[in-house]
Amino acid sequence: MRRFRPNIVVEGAGAWDEDNWTSARIGETAFTLVKPCSRCVMTTVDPDQGVKSVDLQPLRMLGTYRRTSDGVIFGMNAIHESDGTIRVGDPITLQTTATTENQ
Prior knowledge:
The chain is mainly beta. The protein has one helix and eight strands. It has a six-stranded antiparallel sheet.
């Protein structure tokens, strides 16, 4: 997970669930999820060693099933709609294209 340098990680979500999320509320802070995040070659660098993976993993594997016209995607880009503080363990409410989920 560290190779992807996430700002926020949602525990308990299924693989690729974020593809259907449209907004999130973490504590009192609202976010609009605006687009999938295309990943760069930095995901192939071991953050502990500073060495690039010879086989270009995990980007190469993700590219076999998460490649779009915008590149290899993993996660979402979000814009905060209000100022606020979020903390590890805060509850999150997700709005999806179909329903609202609590995590």
